[in-house]
From TrEMBL:
Molecular function terms from GO: kynureninase activity; pyridoxal phosphate binding
Organism: Streptomyces uncialis
Listed name of the protein: Kynureninase
Cofactor requirements of the protein: pyridoxal 5'-phosphate
The protein's Enzyme Commission number: 3.7.1.3
Biological function: Catalyzes the cleavage of L-kynurenine (L-Kyn) and L-3-hydroxykynurenine (L-3OHKyn) into anthranilic acid (AA) and 3-hydroxyanthranilic acid (3-OHAA), respectively.
Amino acid sequence: MESTREWAEKQDSEDPLSSFRAEFDLPPGVIQLNGNSLGPLHGGVPEALDRVVRREWGEHLIRGWSEDGWWDAPVRVGDRIGRLIGAGPGQTVVGESTSVQLFNALTAAARLRPERTVLVSDAANFPTDRYLAASVARTLGLRLVETTVDGLPGVLARHRGEVGPVLCGAVDFRTGELWDLVRTTAEVRAAGGIAVWDLSHAAGAVPVEVDAAGVDLAVGCGYKYLSGGPGAPAFLYAAARHHDRLDLPLTGWHGHVRPFDMADEFVPAPGIDRARTGTPHILSLLALEAALVPLERAGVAAVREKSLRLGDLLVRLLADRLPAPARPEVVTPAAHHRRGSHLALRCPEASSVSAALMERGIVTDARPPDLLRLCLNGLYVSYTDVFDAVTALGDVRKEMSG
Ligand SMILES: *Cc1c(COP(=O)(O)O)cnc(C)c1O
């Protein structure tokens, strides 16, 4: 690995994924390193939306529900996302926000273990996950115990026989640290708990095999690595073995066994259909469906492999091209099996640095207290992008210290 722009250009010319970048409608000169927050617009999405709006909605009106497949969209798109996370068909549904799906999943997880009194929540998780874990615990009268994923075995041992739902993030949204989902799921289940994973920073980014790992329930965002657009609906996965007993708190009519009977009482549909709520956000849902196409074509494994190479290049360039005082510390673990798809750099005034990079067309973000996040999505980030971003980072740091 060399530290020259020519070397980076050569990698791009040999990269089997290089043609995908041009399919995304990025403005010229913009380098999108923030797909862990909002994935970019793929050219297939406006086309799909135009068809949905003008032809399906505009011309077909209510017939869209049957003729255009709107009714089946939550489970159809769910199955497509399922394939990206190692879920067999009929276990994933799409709709609502991640926050709402978290409430739904966590409450249902607790109801699968009615005799258990403790709800465990990942202390490093995204705020909404922690807030909702606290709220579900309060609503159901459970004791909330927060711990890091590292500390989980200790918590399970201390609360032997008491732990019901355990909510963890597969990738730390701040540091980019990737947790061992297989091992942690096995630990939770061995303790009699229900493993609920937030895959927001994992789905479409790192290979995940929820079925093989024995995950109980999972949720994740549609607008990060799945690039479904702002406010894209989230997904909920529930392992088939739980479906019959899955008692979800959001009992909307679309989850009813016979929705058009308009019955007095809620009777859940069999299978994952019971996790549907009300009328889905069809426009957002079908935008998300179109956005999955490039990722499906490329394959998560290929995207992941390139993302790791981009990450290795970033670390290498920081070491070679930024003199010590300007060089930020890489907080994300170096080992590939411990690293998600963004790298977090510790750098004072991270939000000012991110703003200065934005002025140069390089989209990153900052998270308190001092982390700059650079998302290296192999689907549309090139080796030259990484080279140019490091050059710009060096310039920004020099200006800010000068
Ligand atoms: C991005 C993210 C969310 C966001 O939830 P919304 O309801 O979509 O705002 C939740 N959890 C995690 C772990 C995330 O990374």
